[in-house]
Amino acid sequence: MTTSPTWARAAGRAPARHPVTGRVSSLTYVLLCALLLFALGPLVLFVFSALKTQSELATSPLSFPSTLRWSNFATAWEQANMGAGLLNSVIIVAGTVAGVCVISGCAAYAMARLDLPGSGTFITYLLVTSSLPTQMFLVPLFYLWTTLHLYDSLFGLVVIYWGLFSPFATLLLRSFMMTIPREFEEAARMDGAGELQVLFKVVLPNALPGFLTIALVTALSAYNEFLFAVTFIQDSFLLPVSTTFFTFQQGFTQDYTLIGAAGVIMMLPMLLLFLALQRRFIEGVSASGLGGV
């Protein structure tokens, strides 16, 4: 009985492995393509609807436009006064991001670094408040904001957003600050630095990816928020861009081609911002320990 060489036995086993590897690789690509279609399919149809006429959209909503109606974007921009809406949204987003970064930054530093009594209770409080439905705050806030003369003002809406988005931002930033080595702060204290100097000169520079993450998440949330914006802003010149879709309602009908065009215009600024900062955003989420949640 002859024994086959080692290279012959290895060659005999090799072909059995390649089909399995090929099947696994093909299945992976099929799943990725299906997820890509699931994510981009509605977006592509939304863009198609923005380039059609109203009659074409009603007869063939899923088809490619027969004639590209680029004029829908100009009509939507003028009819909904989207220039003023985008400007109001920029003011709201900038004020919200600045306030949330200050509030959550101070709170996260205190929870992550200072020996505070009842810190676990405070974390539980933040978890509970961030999970509560926002609709339950509408009625008491309406009466309070009317009394404080904050109703129908951009600043009043920004203050509401501070309260809405700060709890989650504090939890995320606290998780990020827990990963910063304490040796940096101890070395600064040995050199005579106080708590504020440690915060601004040591902790904050090392926590910039975390701040960028909460800034991007807060900006997206404030830019897309609709319920509080339409409830607490009545002046048409102060409405953010997320409320412009009411303009295209005519009686009981709506012009969905103009809604699609306005939606594409509204989506582009945040899409470009996320694409520009996506690497920093992913790094911040991963470093905060929430990447696997």
Automatic annotation (TrEMBL):
Domain ABC transmembrane type-1: 86-277
PROSITE patterns: ABC_TM1 (PS50928)
Signal peptide: none
Keyword Cell cycle: no
Keyword Transport appears in the UniProt entry: yes
InterPro entries: MetI-like, MetI-like_sf
Family membership noted in the UniProt record: Belongs to the binding-protein-dependent transport system permease family.
Protein name: Carbohydrate ABC transporter permease
Protein's organism: Pseudonocardia aurantiaca
Lineage: Bacteria, Bacillati, Actinomycetota, Actinomycetes, Pseudonocardiales
